[in-house]
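FORM 12-B: Structure-to-Sequence Request
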């Protein structure tokens, strides 16, 4: 990449300002002063401007507390998208790692690291997802082994993977699943003759929705949260 382009892309300087500081001798590439803004530099070159290291920003990772009414899509002609809640550059590079339905709330992971996204969502890695579920009808203890054995969803040939059902109150449960089929939680309860009236995702693997995030708020993931995806 051209030196002036590299510097303006990753420093916040305009292209004109970048050319000026390069010509003034303020820029070192691999420890050597370069004063020609048009010279080409390697992708892994070490660039310093007035002693400051200038480097492409690393991958980005966020958790969002998704409110009702937002879709997990990069664009949508009818509904607001979760990306409209983010005050970030280059939104088009970001992707949701595990979608939620428009009426589901809670933890949504968003990143521009495609490989990390794959490790979160790939059926092979079987990351757990824990939901708080409000139901139309009371659920009884005999549902627990049904979920543990796996539920046969309508129009599927194989049962779901074993899921853990914890009854909190007659019409409130926590459900932990290890896959992400379309409308999975709603279909699991439909298969036992019940209906989900509210669904909230609390965690994905070891990443738990931050209780300080109000609906619609988001924050970067910590380094430990990012790394935890590879530990579980
Ligand atoms: N299961 C559903 O039915 N909906 C979601 O949004 C997530 C899991």
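FORM 12-B RESPONSE
SEQUENCE OUT:
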């Amino acid at each position: 990449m051209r030196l002036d382009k590299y510097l303006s892309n990753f420093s916040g300087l305009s292209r004109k300002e970048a050319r000026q500081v390069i010509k003034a001798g303020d820029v070192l590439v691999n420890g050597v002063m370069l004063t020609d803004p048009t010279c080409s530099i390697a992708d892994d070159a070490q660039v310093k401007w007035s002693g400051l290291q200038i480097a492409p920003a690393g991958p980005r990772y966020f958790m969002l507390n998704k409110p009702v009414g937002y879709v997990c899509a990069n664009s949508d002609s009818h509904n607001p998208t979760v990306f409209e809640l983010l005050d970030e550059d280059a939104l088009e590079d970001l992707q949701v790692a595990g979608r939620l339905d428009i009426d589901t709330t809670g933890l949504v992971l968003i990143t521009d690291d495609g490989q990390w996204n794959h490790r979160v969502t790939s059926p092979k890695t079987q990351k757990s997802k824990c939901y708080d579920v409000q139901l139309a009808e009371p659920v009884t203890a005999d549902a627990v082994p049904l979920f543990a054995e796996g539920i046969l969803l309508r129009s599927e040939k194989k049962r779901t993977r074993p899921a853990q059902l914890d009854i909190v109150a007659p019409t409130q449960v926590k459900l932990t699943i290890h896959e992400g089929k379309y409308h999975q939680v709603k279909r699991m309860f439909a298969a036992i003759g019940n209906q989900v009236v509210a669904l909230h995702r609390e965690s994905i693997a070891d990443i738990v929705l931050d209780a300080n995030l109000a609906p619609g708020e988001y924050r970067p993931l910590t380094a430990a949260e990012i790394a935890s995806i590879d530990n579980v």
